[in-house]
Amino acid sequence: MTLEQTLSNLEQKIAYFDVVNLNESAKGVAWHIDHSLKVINGVILTLKNSNPTEFQWKFNAARVYFLTKGSFPRGKAKAPKSVMNDDTIMIDDVLAQLGKAKMLVSELYTINSKSNFKHPFFGLLNLRMTIRFLKIHTNHHIKIIDDIIGRT
Length: 152
Description:
Four Helix Bundle (Hemerythrin (Met), subunit A), single chain, 5 helices, 152 residues, globular, mainly alpha
């Protein structure tokens, strides 16, 4: 599945924007969509602004494990404040973020392959690893959304 397809799957969840199910998640569907879009947009902007000459591959066991496994466990990591939203999430803001995400994702394939993003646990990720991370991260939140709305 491509990142474009993953983003399209996330977009379909907007229909459930106001759904909350505290038995499944402390946050509602709106939060998971907002968070996922903030991550996509922030990470791609970081890639675009990075210096490709600074990328140097280093072994990272956690990165190898999770990017190979293709999923993250629930509730084990804490997201940085820059991609958290404790305020009321407005649908118009999410739609604007979605439009930006579509544009940025379409630009990904023009970025230097050694453009990079420093993940707090996985270290420096190049373009290929970052795209893989974004797909896994977004699918992680889509699965939580599906549990919130009762789809498994």
